[in-house]
Amino acid sequence: MANKDQILQAHDRQIWLSGILARVGYNTPIGKFLRLVFYYMDAFLILNTWRDFLYIRRDNIGEKFFAVDHAIMHTSHAKVRELMQTEPQLRGNDLGIIRMLAPSYLLNNPLTLGMNGSEHTGARAVILQALPEPTEHAEVLGYLVDRSLAKAAIRGQVHIGDDLPKMLLEILHQLVFEIALSETEIDASRNYNKGLVLASLPNFINQYLLAFITFPRVQHRKRLIERYKESPRWQSYLETGSQYQLNAHQVANSLFDTIHIAGTAGTSALLGSVIGVLCLDERLRNDVVSEVNAVWDGTDTPSGHALEQLTLLHKVIYETARMYPPVRFVSQLTTEGGEVEIGGRRCPFQRGTRLLGSTLTANRDANRYNNPDSFDVTRDFSDIVSWNGEGHERACPGKSLSIGIIKMFCLYLFKKYQWDSFTQVKWDFEKVTAVTPNDLVLQGFTHR
What we know:
The protein has one domain: CATH 1.10.630.10. It is built from 17 helices and 13 strands. It has helices at residues 4-24, 29-48, 50-61, 77-85, 117-130, 138-155, 160-177, 183-194, 203-209, 211-228, 234-242, 248-280, 282-295, 304-309, 311-323, 359-363, 399-415, and strands spanning 64-67, 71-74, 94-95, 98-99, 157-159, 329-333, 338-342, 345-349, 354-358, 417-418, 421-422, 441-443, 446-447. Strands 1-2-9-6 form a four-stranded mixed β-sheet, with helices on both faces. The chain has a three-stranded antiparallel β-sheet with strand order 5-12-11. A two-stranded antiparallel sheet has the order 3-4. 43% of the residues are buried. By secondary structure, the protein is α+β, with helices and mostly antiparallel strands. α12 crosses α17.
């Protein structure tokens, strides 16, 4: 575990690096090499103690500081929100703090988050077309959620960290492509997601030295993408993409990442945290159950109107997303160089420097939220930075579906299913994984 001195000494080295990069160049061979060295040095600290990393640097250096590959990290709500609303916005092929240095793991297609210009506009148009509005497709969504939970009832438990991502993979493939994944394919997709961190290693390491791990995962991605092209909906997605000069490879890979990374990892993490919150707070859980009983009698499947009537649950989801954000960082690139004040010192930065925003610290900024570490569903969520904010070109296109899926799960969990006990509810703020009580197990899980 890193301590305060390690975290601050590592930042002193970043200050030193700013002057060196100003002399040797940011994207020269030596500049790239130095940044890569510092990226891995800082990444080792932040991967194992990410909350301490953020708070120690913020409290001792200031609202902004250098982190990972000489990126400028912002921690306040105001600055993170400003970063999100910057338009037009230039992004690199990064997933939060993770630099995707191994394009082979992504089949040489950038993440949608790393696309820019018409490529990003086109991919976003395809994604918006592919993701259904939950209130308009409540019947099929309810059927899929109920089917997933029925399988868990046979096993007699729901493991938050293991079962929810698998359920989401199955549900999203049905919603987007109308295809059913086998258990083998679901497991392979889970393994693919778990290996995303490997994409932060240089490509030759990922593709050759670690081929015994990465090759089967990349092959799974290839096979699944070929299945996408057999979907009855594929042609319509391809036609939309072609309007923006996207080819089949770009369309298929963008939808793969949407389902696997944003959809599965993000939504399952937030769903798990909502369940954890309701397990711990009996009064709030009882109020949610009362609301569920008021909007749905348990017959047929819930309607879109029932989803809209879940106003308390909607606030619970928002407050959970504020306190336990499934997306920890947002990232973009500077379009020009300059100087930035870090800890009272003027430091040079170069064109292409990453600007990172920490959603965790932004969501718990005492300058924006009263008692920020307390759970309070009466807050004003109008400018929440979870889901990448609202009203701009980079806002999360899957926000409505994600919230709708979580609401549908809660309808069934509290109306049609029950559990007799649950294990410890604990959020992990050390490792840089989704802030979710992954070890929580609903035991004695069964139909009512």
